[in-house]
Design brief:
Structural class: alpha/beta
InterPro entries: AAA+_ATPase (IPR003593), ABC_transporter-like_ATP-bd (IPR003439), ABC_transporter-like_CS (IPR017871), ABC_transporter_ATP-binding (IPR050763), P-loop_NTPase (IPR027417)
Keywords: ATP-binding, Nucleotide-binding, Transport
Order of helices and strands: EEEHEEHEHHHEHEHEEHEEEHEH
Bound molecules: adenosine-5'-triphosphate
CATH architecture of the largest domain: 3-Layer(aba) Sandwich
GO molecular function, one term: ATP hydrolysis activity
Radius of gyration: 24 Å
Pfam families: ABC_tran (PF00005)
CATH topology of the largest domain: Rossmann fold
Protein name: ATP-binding cassette domain-containing protein
CATH superfamily of the largest domain: P-loop containing nucleotide triphosphate hydrolases
Number of strands: 14
CATH class of the largest domain: Alpha Beta
């Protein structure tokens, strides 16, 4: 697949001297969904804003559909729809007019058929005459997407599309994104949620402290990230594990009533069923069990170790 966006050696130092991006290079392929995963302050929004030409780079270049993001700003920007993190829409305007007005901002002629198609695809058509202030939070987010799509961009940026959104609505948003991809739109979304990246993306880029740590196919990355821990609470403390359990990746924790077992979520077998049976056979009585996923922070620590 050809690149639709090429970011090359991009750095951004904000006024005041803070360096938010450090020599970022990134190729975004036409038609893919790329998730940018990173903790707060990693530089995700800065990267998006710079690609969209809203923030000026300190050094480096960006090409969008072959247009330089600075020298050819208008042509580059016309290819992009941007859905910002915050909801900023005129409360008393109707849905239809809001979206139609956005199209005009890109110098495109009024085209009711396009606006209708966009609103229908986002299940907003029956709300077209409603004032924005009467919509639910989820619908307002859809209006933001509709605005971003009003000028028929080939690329859509979604900055944390599901932050603060309930589970049901999050799934809805995922469906909308999938549909857009099926229509050939290239989608870049930022997220804190591994689950979201796992669900949506073709490729995942991990960004931390202004640096891209890696960009990989989702499957390959999930294999790396797919470690979980089973924490077992025993009724009585153990000093040493019985010999019959030596085949398991099992360690005694602190206090000694705790056992830790780590396993691959992506593997065919987790070994949990056999482990629990063998614990019972060894006479160890369980009080409680709990599982936990490696946190983003732990994953980053591991990635940083691996990548330096
Ligand atoms: N206009 C600005 N001036 C100075 N520093 C800024 C400015 N905008 C962002 N920063 C800093 O740059 C860093 C990266 O911010 P950015 O918003 O890109 O992160 P992010 O990954 O999008 O975070 P979040 O997940 O919280 O949205 C942060 O430390 C932030 O404080």
């Amino acid at each position: 697949m050809a690149s639709i966006i090429s970011v090359s050696d991009l750095s951004k130092v904000y006024e005041g001297g803070f360096q938010a991006l450090k020599n970022v290079s990134l190729e975004i392929k036409e038609g893919e969904i790329l998730a940018l995963l990173g903790p707060n302050g990693a530089g995700k929004t800065t990267l998006i804003s710079t690609i969209c030409g809203i923030t000026l780079p300190t050094s480096g270049t960006i090409s969008v559909g072959g247009f330089d993001s600075q020298d050819d700003f208008r042509n580059a920007r016309a290819l992009i729809g941007l859905v910002p993190q915050e909801i900023t829409i005129e409360p008393f305007e109707t849905v239809f007019n809001t979206v139609s007005f956005s199209r005009g901002l890109f110098g495109k002629n009024r085209n009711n058929a396009v606006i209708e198609k966009v609103l229908r695809s986002l299940s907003l058509w029956d709300k077209k005459d409603n004032q924005i202030r009467t919509l639910s939070g989820g619908m307002k987010r859809r209006v933001l997407i509709a605005k971003a799509l009003s000028h028929e961009p080939r690329i859509l940026f979604l900055d944390e599309p599901t932050a603060g959104v309930d589970v049901e609505l999050r799934k809805d948003m995922w469906e909308v994104v999938r549909q857009l991809r099926a229509e050939g739109v290239t989608i870049i979304l930022t997220t804190h949620y591994i689950e979201e990246a796992e669900e949506m993306a073709d490729r995942v880029g991990v960004i931390n402290h202004g640096e891209i740590l890696l960009v990989e196919d989702k499957q390959a990355l999930m294999q790396k990230l797919g470690q979980k821990q089973l924490q077992i609470e025993l009724q009585e403390p153990v000093e040493k594990l019985p010999e019959s359990l030596s085949g398991y990746r099992l360690t005694v924790g602190e206090p000694k009533t705790q056992l830790h077992y780590s396993y691959e979520t992506t593997g065919e077998r987790t070994g949990i069923t056999a482990l629990l049976a063998d614990l019972a056979n060894a006479g160890l009585r369980l009080k409680d069990i709990e599982t936990r996923q490696s946190s983003l922070e732990e994953i980053f620590v591991n990635l940083v170790k691996e990548n330096r």
